[in-house]
Design a protein that fits this description.
With 260 residues, the protein is of the alpha/beta class. It folds into two domains: 165 residues, Rossmann fold (3-Layer(aba) Sandwich); 71 residues, no CATH class. 40% of the residues lie in helices and 15% in strands. It has a six-stranded parallel beta sheet, with helices on both faces. The protein has a two-stranded antiparallel sheet with strand order 2-3. Strand 6, helix 9 and strand 7 form a beta-alpha-beta unit. The chain starts with 23 loop residues before the first helix and ends in a 5-residue tail after the last strand.
Length: 260
């Protein structure tokens, strides 16, 4: 699947915190404040999640569903579903694979093999190249780096299965990576729970300097980063998030992209 030059999430479906989404002028003001705080700090640190924060991973799911469609074309009982899977688009893709399959009209009898096929690929280095940057994300990260920020890409992706593909994806999209002042921090293994991993890392970020800002698309992660670093500007990136999130702390700003 060819990459779109601009990724973005449709605002047609309400998200848990869409009522708090900042207007364009306020978003720009807060993002510029992050740049100013970076410039004013002796050792500024800015923390970014990846999936649903800097990167849109929906094209990865769409590519896998189309690969599955090609496989299912060889099975007579699944050929109709193969046609619908081949027609999957980024705009129709939501957080849950089960919901995606339901929206596409795939019968529940076929959900388990579809999930197994997707899981084997979605969390694998070879498929990271399908991800695309959110609007403004690359320029914003590069501006912060030029202003002196230490960029920490703090992700729930795991070291054995996704680290190399993630590094290459960030590099190819144009994010600062692999140079002094950038860190890719990944889980030691797939089974480590994301919240516990991020909490442990959040407690050690002071080793790098002053955490001036943090960005994540999961409310629980935003809350824990703000709890550990109360002075940092914290942003919930309103794209896709896990169902039934906790309440988002009132200090957290809600944005859906990084354009200034």
């Amino acid at each position: 699947m060819a990459k779109s030059p601009r990724a973005g999430y449709a605002r047609g479906v309400a998200t848990p915190f869409s009522d708090r989404l900042l207007d364009a002028d306020t978003r720009r003001a807060h993002l510029r404040d992050v740049i100013r705080r970076t410039q004013a700090s002796d050792r500024p640190v800015v923390v970014f999640d990846l999936d649903g924060t800097l990167l849109d991973n929906r094209p990865r799911t769409v590519a896998i569903l189309r690969e599955l469609a090609h496989q299912w074309q060889e099975h007579e009982e699944r050929q109709d579903h193969a046609k619908t899977l081949h027609g999957a688009t980024v705009d129709d893709t939501v957080y849950s694979l089960a919901e995606n399959l339901q929206r596409l009209g795939v019968h529940e009898d076929h959900h388990e093999p579809a999930f197994d096929f997707w899981k084997e690929r979605f969390f694998h280095d070879d498929y990271m190249h399908h991800d695309v940057a959110l609007p403004g994300a690359v320029d914003f990260a590069r501006t912060l780096y030029a202003a002196g920020a230490n960029l920490v890409y703090l992700t729930g992706r795991d070291l054995p299965g996704m680290a190399l593909g993630t590094f290459k994806s960030l590099r190819d999209e144009g994010f600062p990576i692999g140079i002094v002042g950038t860190e890719l921090v990944v889980k030691p293994d797939f089974d480590t729970p994301d919240p516990a991993f991020k909490k442990d890392v959040a407690e050690t970020l002071d080793r790098l300097g002053e955490v001036v800002a943090a960005f994540d698309n999961e409310a629980a992660n935003c809350n824990l980063l703000l709890e550990e670093h109360p002075a940092c500007l914290t942003f919930f990136v309103d794209t896709l998030c896990a169902p039934n999130p906790p309440a988002l702390r009132p200090e957290v700003h809600v944005i859906d992209h990084f354009e200034i």
